Request: fold
Amino acid sequence: QAPCWLDLRAVTPLVDMLSLSAHKFGGPKGVGVLVAKEGVAFEPRLMGGGQERERRSGTHNVAGIVAMTEALAATDHERPAELPRITALRDRLVASVRDSLDGVHETVAPHAKVAGSAHLCIEGVENEALLFLLDEAGVCASAASACAAGAMEPSHVLAAMGVPRSLAMGAVRLTLGRTTTEADVARGAEVLVDAARRLRAKAKARP
Reply:
């Protein structure tokens, strides 16, 4: 998702390798970009005809590559205007939730956030149940990396960040993009707050 929020011209010189998936910025699935700094060792995972300078053999997906290029150019062109708009919407979403609900923690420092993502940990709530209620109300969200595949276990990333297990179990990720509106943000915050209150009330009523 980096092209949506970051200027790749500034990022690329700082890393040894950079990979992009086209569908993360409006392009088609199944095509991407890999940028490697000169001198970085690279072993191909697909052998065969030697395409892509023997880095990835197989017939080129020309239509996908062209579509990805157009999507990347459009994203780069729109980012200067979209970035402040989405940032304001994200901040409004988080503020609305925190103003209406106590025990809500952001896991990312203000200076380190990307515009299109809000990651929250909500006290007294299990994200599995929370996501069910959000989905039932038509709001798409995820637990991000808070849960390991196949088991409701807190993410090792959150653990490494010092987030307590009980709080990590209430982690939820809300994402925004170019189609997100003020009405979407208001609705999302309303549904999230209502769902969290319902779950807390249910937990409190248990014998």
Observations:
- Helices lie at 2-5, 8-11, 51-54, 62-100, 127-136, 156-160, 165-168, 182-205.
- The two ends are 45 Å apart (CA to CA).
- The beta strands are 17-21, 32-36, 104-106, 117-122, 147-148, 151-154, 171-175.
- The longest strand covers residues 117-122.
